[in-house]
Amino acid sequence: MAIVKGTDQNFKQEVSDGLVLVDFWAPWCGPCKMIAPVLEELNEDMGDQVKIVKVDVDENQETASNFGIMSIPTLLLLKDGEPVDKVVGFRPKEALADLIQSHA
């Protein structure tokens, strides 16, 4: 499954079912650019366990505000639409994989 572009309009629908890792990011954010290829690899390796949704905070301020996103990148892990874990800043692939598996 491809990484999904989350928007204020489709967010609730995209995260309502199963395990979803949401990447709150912006195009101008250096660490966000560093984590993008890590998320691509995670999607290839764990796409059957977790859906990855990327939300551009500049374009989708309502969704970012609803979750109190203050720093980016913030990775929010949701299970059936409810937040279960949160990571702020860059993390290596192994750390993110462990995070996902701990909630799978």
Overview of the structural elements:
By secondary structure, the protein is of the alpha/beta class. The chain has one domain: Glutaredoxin (3-Layer(aba) Sandwich), CATH 3.40.30. It is 36% helix and 28% strand. The chain is built from four helices and five strands, in the order E-H-E-H-E-H-E-E-H. It has helices spanning 11-15, 30-46, 61-66, 93-101; strands at residues 4-6, 19-25, 51-56, 74-79, 82-88. A five-stranded mixed sheet has the order 1-3-2-4-5. The model has no long low-confidence stretch (mean pLDDT 97).
Quick synopsis:
By secondary structure, this protein is of the alpha/beta class. 36% of the residues lie in helices and 28% in strands.
Which quaternary structure do these chains form? single chain
Strand order of the largest sheet: 1-3-2-4-5
What structural category arises from helix and sheet content? alpha/beta
- Please count the beta strands (DSSP E, at least 2 residues each): 5
Model regions low in confidence, pLDDT < 50 over at least 5 residues: none
Order of helices and strands: EHEHEHEEH
Main CATH class: Alpha Beta
Q: If you consult CATH, what is the topology?
A: Glutaredoxin
Strand content: 25-35%
- Give the proportion of residues in helices: 25-40%
Terminus-to-terminus distance? 17 Å
The CATH level-2 architecture is identified as: 3-Layer(aba) Sandwich
Tally of separate helices: 4
The biggest beta sheet is recorded as: 5 strands, mixed
Q: What would the principal axes of the Cα set say about the shape?
A: globular
Q: What's the gyration radius in Å?
A: 12 Å
- The CATH superfamily name is Glutaredoxin
Average predicted confidence as pLDDT = 97
Overall structural domain count: 1
